[in-house]
Amino acid sequence: xxxxxxxxxxxxxxxxxxxxxxxxxxxxxxxxxxxxxxxxxxxxxxxxxxxxxxxxxxxxxxxxxxxxxxxxxxxxxxxxxxxxxxxxxxxxxxxxxxxxxxxxxxxxxxxxxxxxxxxxxxxxxxxxxxxxxxxxxxxxxxxxxxxxxxxxxxxxxxxxxxxxxxxxxxxxxxx
Length: 175
Prior knowledge:
The structure is a single chain. By secondary structure, this protein is α+β, with helices and mostly antiparallel strands. It is about 50% helix and about 15% strand. It contains seven helices and five strands. The strands form two sheets. The protein has a three-stranded antiparallel sheet with strand order 3-5-4. β4 and β5 form a beta hairpin. The longest helix is centred in the first third of the chain and has 17 residues, at about 30-45. It is globular and about 55 Å long.
């Protein structure tokens, strides 16, 4: 499966991996692009290759800098579409509170190499630096998130036979 641009300049998304629902829009619309740019600016300003913004803060930044008003539900839907497209990945986080309660923290988000290349092809300022930062991080071999496997968006198997063969190979290697 490969990425391609449509005639209108929108990015055509690949089908969702097995077990995930299909993307509805099939392209990156203005809201999703605004989310990607906002996350990129957070990463560039912090001089890091990942970010952990709160959803409400991100929605406020999108409204302030992109003049796009969205609600929390659409933000989470857009983030799911971005993640399904392989442009960004996340690690969910939580902490244990008092009385055995579990509190949810904001997710740790990072761009994949595909996402950085997408922003670079849109000529977004800072995307080239992000791509260099991601490649440098991947070469370091650090065990912390994101790992090299997290930076490279995996394409789903083309057919059922390929998926079954991969599972058999995995089981054979284990024992």
